[in-house]
Structure formats: C-alpha cells, structure tokens
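Inputs:
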Amino acid sequence: MSDDLDSDLRELLRREGEKPDFPSARVERALGRLELQLAVGGSRVGGLSRMARRKTVAIAAASLVLGGIGGALVTRSVPVHPPVAHGGPSASSVSAASPVMPEPPVIELVPTVSAPRQRVARVDAGAVPNSGTLGRERAILDEARSALRDGDGPRARGLLMRHETMFPHGILAEEREAIAVRVLVACDERDAAAVRAAEFHQRFPESPLAASVDSSLREP
Amino acid sequence: MGSAAFPQVLGQTRLFQPKLSFQTLFRNEFTYVWRSLRRLGVVEHDCDDLANEVFFRVSEKYESYDRERPLRPWLFAFAARVASDYRKLARHRRETPLDSGHDLVDDASDVESRLVDREETDLVLAAMECLSMDKRTVFVMHEIDEHPIPEIAAALGIAVPTAYSRLRAARLEFTEAARRLQAIRSRRGR
C-alpha cells in the first residue's frame, strides 16, 4: 500500500504506544481529586469552566483541612444548572406505579428526606473533621462495592449502614445512597430500592449518579 | 472486563455480569486517557485537568456503556471530544506542543521552523500537529493504539470507508511532516 508508513516512522509510533503507565500514587491522587469533584460539584461539573472547578475543589479541600470552623456549610459558588432530567421514578411516580406497597423496606440506611432541597455541595464541618475522612469514607464504600460484586448483599448492606452511622452527612453520602439502591436491588428488595431511588432523586436532583441509580432499578 | 457471574444473593442465583467499578476503570485507564489527550494535542500541563474532565463525562455514561464493546475506543471517543473542545480555544492552540510560547500563525513553514527549534520536541507529536483533528483521531487510534478500523468507526460514529479515507490521508500527511522535520533537523545538525 503506497500510503502505508515507512518502517522507521512505524517504529517511532510503536515506541509512543509503549510508554509506561504512571505510578499508582499519581493515579490515586488523580482519582481522589475526581472523587472530591464529584462529591462537591455533584451536578454537571463538565459544564463548568476549569477555573470554577479548580475553585470548587480548592474550597472543598480547604474545608476538609479546616473542618469544624464555625460549623459552616461550604456551598458551591458556581453557576447553577437546571436539574438533569431523569428517566427514573420520582416519589410520586413510585406511589402511582406501586399503589400497594407490599412491605416496608427491610433496611433503612438513611433517614427519609421529607422535602426536596436544592442541590448544594454541602460539607458538614462536624462530620468532616480532617482530611483523612475522605479516605476512610472511600475505604468503606470500596469495601461495600466489593462485597456487592462478590454477591454478598448482607455484607454490603452492613458496610453502608456503617458508613451511614459514621458519616451521616459525609462527602460521599451521595455515592453511598446510589450504592444502597444497588444493594437493595441485588437483595431483591425492589420496592425498597424504588423508594430509595426516589429519595435519592429528591435529595440529589442534579446528581451525576442519577443515571446509575435508575439503571440499577432496571437490573435483572 | 466483566468478571464471573454474580453468584448468590440471598439464595437466588443472579445472571448479572458486573462490570468494572468506576474506580477500577479510572485506575486502569487513567494513563491511557492522559496519553491519548497528549497525542491529540493537549499540552502536558493541561492533561491532568482534561483527563479529569474525560472521566467526569465517562462517569455520567458509564452505566449505559455496552460492555460487549471494546472499552478503549469508547474511552478514546470521550478524549477526542474533550481535546477537540479544548483546541477550539485559540489560547490552547497557541499552547500546542508545536508552538508553545509563540503566537499562532498560519504559515505552515513558520510553524515547522518553530517546532524544530524546540530541543525536546517529540517528532511523533510534532508531526501529528500537521493533521486535522478528524484525521489525527483516526491516526492515533489505529497507528498507536492499534485498534481495527471498524472498531474506530463504530466508536467515533463514522462510516468505515470514511475512517479508511482519513487514515490514508493522515498517513501521507504525517509522513510528509515527519520527513520535513527530520530534514530540517538534519540540516541543523541535530
């Protein structure tokens, strides 16, 4: 093929393709940064300027370090986007679709949210005393995910309850709630899962995990 | 990718095939996404931010990812969109690996001249700067990542003949650019 590459150029390209992976510490730092961004700017961060996102992450990081000062909430100072449309059930649609709730949910990982609230990145200073908290939260949720993958629903449930107890308003509460829906589905408690999903949408109307929550309900 | 079937949940057998957790996906593919962005013309000091952006977008779509499809072309398509948006901004075009620190000019020979002036310019990245984004995307996916053209076409949402056509043109342009750069370096004793 006359438009093919010469062997020397092909060799250069091959070498480019064989560049090594980054050290795991660097990858972990990047992952921690993304998780922080997801937790703090839980809405469509992708639509924000990088400067705004950097500011958001910086504010969150500062709040982690200085947690406890004034017990104040740290609120995202970035443009507010309209809520993302969800295909999943709302609280009312759950009621309509399931006029007769067969049983109350077996587990209650978080208190019921009685009214929708604006999605603001909220870092409860009392619940986030230091920068190691995020790592601890993440470790518990990682373990819960792992248990879920292994088919150990009860263990996953226990870990989520532990997270709920230790970090009721933790940075990763949103992620915990998304996982809780999956756990309920995995445990075949679909009605409870639907209720929990509706609560999730109420509580986190702009969550990037919303699609994940909805798709959990569609799992076979 | 997918692991063994979800075994037993409260006594019931599940057929659900769990896919990688998002975190595992991130750990496995961060370097790939980062390097892909670099190959698509993102300057090094912006690659972390843009890789973050790619994974943010991926996180929104990951649940709908069809695990029957190859993962990397799917990820690459996100990287290509992010890199394309990035390069549409003039301030980023001025910072491409080829002309960092200089004003953007249209004269190709001037661009080449500035490229070879940089001691550490990587020939592959430099020569790829002469490709349009469309051609560059197909070129990187095929010549560096070694994805078959049908996979590339599917990931990018283009027709297979279009992908082949872009690849052919990209090869020619890349070769010409690389040879010119090599000749200039050679004349300058590099």
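The longest helix of chain A spans residues 132-149. Flag for discussion at group meeting.
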